[in-house]
Specification:
Helices cover 47% and strands 14% of the residues. The chain is of the alpha/beta class and 440 residues long. Strand 1, helix 1 and strand 2 form a beta-alpha-beta unit. It has a six-stranded parallel β-sheet with strand order 3-2-1-4-5-6, sandwiched between helices. It folds into two domains: 198 residues, Rossmann fold (3-Layer(aba) Sandwich), CATH 3.40.50.720; 241 residues, 3-Layer(aba) Sandwich (Rossmann fold). It is built from 18 helices and 14 strands. It binds nicotinamide-adenine-dinucleotide (NAD). Nicotinamide-adenine-dinucleotide binds next to helix 1 and helix 5. The site of nicotinamide-adenine-dinucleotide (NAD) has 26 residues, from helix 1 and helix 5.
Length: 440
């Protein structure tokens, strides 16, 4: 089937590449000319493991095309996925102007039936607004459908997730839309055996916000428990293990740390709260989730300050700029909290990240970036771990200690065992466990 995907970011590009890999003919549209030019040169504008191979293979096979022209995309396919951003506005609401614009431009360019599918994360009942917009901008009385197909991929494992989703959710209200979406996803459902859920459009839209908010809540819950652990002498690793083995709870998203970040959880929780307020049901539970998340960063900052007393002129090596391992995405990353705070306190920063350096540097030029972890830690008064990159766990700790001025580790990801670190001569602070003091 011919498919158009509008927006070639983390979701659009992965979805377009996946659709082409399962045999569809795909046109990916983006209004960022630079991105489209890069993609036409087979250069990836984002990092996602395995993505470039799939893109290259399918472009060469003639199943995957890129364009900056929405008219071309509208003519190309009966089904058009909207995968543009829905970033947060200063009020906390999701900015729906990119989605609206796609609806408007598709309506202006379509000459026969089109199915417009919301893949972007949207607030519940966005489909109603889209319908109104489409109707306003259509030149003739041309039939169309709106559907919702929220995306659940995780950056870092997006390709794997796309071929092996936990479930596929589609919100539909016509047989034609149902048939088209089923045909698109049939190869994935057949191969992976994943559940394929059809529901009404509002339910599909809401499923996405409810899922992300629940995951954020799980993280904040375990972070709250980690604070109790610190006060009482319990160990959050042991507690989380004990809790997570309960099948009703499950072990995922029970890692205490410096809090969630990324382009989804913070903005989706925020948008869900606003939506609740607007429709007259206050989601106070999520307001607390946000408060706990913010307090985790402040808590680690306080520990660092207490450990070093004065931060001015202290050299801090920051390990990890991405919001999590496996991605170059720095949106809402903890590093965006710590770097400005430490600069404000006149600390000297040395930064390391295996792939997010480029993206971070765009907004933070003139800082010292290092390709090598050991080099980054050279002469540091403390190392601050913000991302769970596997390279950090593989470090030669004896060498690390030799390289640092003071062997102090502030670990926002609980990567090491405190006793081992103390045995190696480090003062080691992490989250939800007793601080380990260097054994001399
Ligand atoms: N990133 C994730 O992990 C993830 C996961 C699930 C859902 N989502 C949701 O998917 C949506 C997209 O997220 P993303 O991370 O891929 O965003 P992104 O910012 O990486 O990509 C969005 C792309 O859309 C393009 N764009 C914007 N307006 C356009 C227009 N009018 N015409 C053509 N292109 C346009 C931008 O240039 C950009 O390349 C968001 O709603 C997000 O919440 C994201």
């Amino acid at each position: 089937m011919n498919i158009t995907v509008v927006g070639t970011g983390y979701v659009g590009l992965v979805s377009g590449a996946t659709f082409s890999e399962i045999g569809h003919n795909v046109m990916c549209i983006d209004n960022d000319d630079k991105k489209v030019a890069m993609l036409k040169r087979l250069e990836m504008p984002i990092y996602e493991e395995g993505l470039d191979e799939i893109v290259r293979k399918n472009v060469k096979a003639g199943r995957l095309h890129f364009s900056n022209c929405i008219k071309e995309g509208t003519e190309f396919a009966e089904v058009i996925f909207i995968a543009v951003g829905t970033p947060p506005m200063s009020t906390g609401e999701a900015n729906m102007s990119y989605v609206e614009r796609v609806g408007r431009e598709v309506a202006e360019n379509m000459t026969s039936y089109r199915l417009l599918v919301e893949k972007s994360t949207v607030i519940v009942n966005t489909n109603e607004q889209l319908k109104r917009t489409m109707t306003k901008y259509l030149k003739n009385d041309i039939p169309f459908d709106i559907a919702s197909n929220p995306e659940f991929l995780r950056e870092g494992t997006a390709i794997k997730d796309a071929f092996n989703p936990d479930r596929i959710v589609v919100g539909i209200e016509s047989n034609r839309a149902a048939r088209l979406l089923k045909e698109i996803y049939e190869p994935i459902v057949k191969k992976s055996g994943c559940p394929y859920l059809e529901m009404n459009i509002a339910s599909a839209e809401l499923t996405k916000h409810a899922s992300n908010s629940f995951l954020a809540m799980k993280i904040s819950f375990i972070n709250a428990v980690s604070r109790i652990c610190e006060i009482t002498g319990a160990d959050i690793g042991q507690v989380a293990h004990g809790v997570g083995l309960d099948k009703r709870i499950g072990p995922q998203f029970l890692s205490a740390g410096v809090g969630y970040g990324g382009s989804c959880f913070p903005k989706d929780v925020d948008a869900f709260i606003r939506m609740g307020d607007e429709c007259g049901y206050s989601l106070n539970i999520l307001k607390e989730v946000q408060r706990i998340n913010a307090s985790q960063r402040e808590h680690l900052m306080r520990k660092l300050q207490q450990e070093l007393w004065v931060l001015e002129d202290k050299t801090i090596a920051i390990f990890g700029l991405a919001f999590k391992a496996g991605t170059d995405d720095v949106r809402e990353s903890p590093s965006l909290y710590f770097v400005p705070k430490l600069l404000e306190k006149k600390a000297k920063l040395r930064l390391w990240d295996p792939i997010a350096k480029g993206k971070f540097d765009q907004d933070h030029p003139g800082l010292h970036y290092f390709d090598n972890l050991m080099e980054c830690a050279d002469g540091a008064d403390a190392v601050l771990i913000l991302t769970d990159w596997p390279e950090i766990k593989q470090l030669d700790l004896d060498q690390l200690k030799k390289n640092m001025k003071c062997p102090i580790i502030m670990d926002g990801r609980n990567l090491f065992d405190p006793k081992t670190m103390a045995g190696k001569g480090f003062t080691y602070h992490c989250i939800g466990k007793k601080q380990a003091v260097a054994m001399k």
